[in-house]
Amino acid sequence: MSATGVGVVGLLGGGGVDIGDDVMDLSRSAEMDYFNTKMAAHCKDSVRASDFAFAAIDGLPKNVIATLLNELSKGKEFALSFATTEGTRAGKERAVRYWRVFCALLRIPEVVSSFSNSYYLHYFAAYMGLVWRKYGGDQFGLAGATVEQMISQVVKWLELRFGVSVRSFDKVLSEVCKGLKRRSGAGLGVMMLPVETYVFIQKTLLGRGDPLSLCLADSQKMRFLGLRRISETSSTNRHDGGAGRDARLLLHDNCYHNAVEFAPYWPKTKNGVNLLRPFPLDDELGVFGCTSCFIARFKANEQFLLEHPEVDRKKLPFFHVNGAPLHRDDVEACLSELCALAFKEEPSVPHLNPELYRINTHSERKGGSCFYLAHCDRGEAFVRWLGDWKSLSFFVYARVTQKYRLAMSSKASGVLSAMFK
């Protein structure tokens, strides 16, 4: 790996999913090889065979069958490990863990088999939504929507593992969750960060000039102008307080630049693998100083590695302060502070009132997508590609603004008028 390049295999290779250390390695025994041989032979000889021919196939010895079934069971778990994303698996594990601890402490069955004992799930939902308190915390109860998600994960676990379809015989559980959601009240909508507020935040952070502020400014460029997710630029925590694995975090060793572009590369993202999104120097993004800032940070990281030989090059985050990755908490605190400051200090500028919106790390990605649609005439295809959206959730983030709609209508009218002349 060169100082200014990413390995060719990393950029060009791979059609599969990178298997992490936590996923089992599927081994194949001698019995499985024997089984494969028998399967291949019988399948070849049984073309257009009669029912009598299939019935005449001799089964394998019982000890071999036991080994095969055990190995096939591991294969099933191996396949299931790819059925959901890491975040979904973590959420399911957390919900099921809370449910099983709840049942163990109260000495009640964790398998809800019929309506006669499904009320335990009602109790669990009410407990999590009304009286549960995080260890060391001071707030009681989770949001109703969060409880609904936890219950859904537990119900799915019961269905997959024990074949119990709780929804088929219990209609009360959904009403309990509905009540908790109504009690929580309607949440505020996520703020779409206006470009005016983005510029205010950039100027403020650059004016402060300390290492954390400069790192926050550069990482915000990657999220607002590069439409990247928070997990791809900063360290994150799990809901239960444990340290995040940061498998999607952009690393310095996965970036390169040359005379025409800066290219960050993510081996793993929420939607897939091997994501490369270059920032051209002569592109509109260069006008904002985006690409030049990333190149300057790249060079600063190289200098940091020279001065700190004990730091592992392959683990150094691209956005870091003294080797420690930028944290999601720092990003959210900065957004909350500076959005409020912008609204207060520039009343004549169209900043959004932070009291009317929920400001979080989605605000930047959402605001950036709307900025492109409204001002840069790039089109939805470009925004969807840049932001790596795979589903129609793209249309929730990148709402068509009034200005963009009017501009598109005007262009369409112009084209039709020209055609009918």
How would you describe this structure to a colleague?
The chain has helices spanning 8-12, 30-45, 51-55, 62-80, 86-106, 119-131, 144-162, 166-169, 172-184, 195-208, 211-224, 284-287, 290-307, 328-345, 362-376, 380-387, 394-397, 402-420, and strands at residues 255-257, 261-268, 273-276, 279-280, 320-321, 324-325. A hairpin with a 3-residue loop joins β1 and β2. Helices cover 54% and strands 5% of the residues. The chain is mostly helical and 421 residues long. It folds into two domains: 86-184, Orthogonal Bundle (DNA polymerase, domain 1); 195-412, Intergrase catalytic core (hpI Integrase, Chain A), CATH 1.10.443.10. α6 runs antiparallel to α7 (144-162), α7 (144-162) packs antiparallel against α9 (172-184) and α10 (195-208) packs antiparallel against α11 (211-224).
Query: How is the main sheet built?
Result: 4 strands, antiparallel
Uncertain runs are 1-24, 239-244
* CATH homologous superfamily label of the largest domain: Intergrase catalytic core
Work out the strand percent: under 5%
Total separate domains: 2
Q: What is the second-level CATH architecture of the largest domain?
A: Orthogonal Bundle
Distance between the termini: 60 Å
Structural Rg: 27 Å
Q: What would CATH call the class of the largest domain?
A: Mainly Alpha
| Strand elements, count | 6
CATH level 3 topology of the largest domain: hpI Integrase, Chain A
Give the integer mean of the pLDDT values: 80
Form type = globular
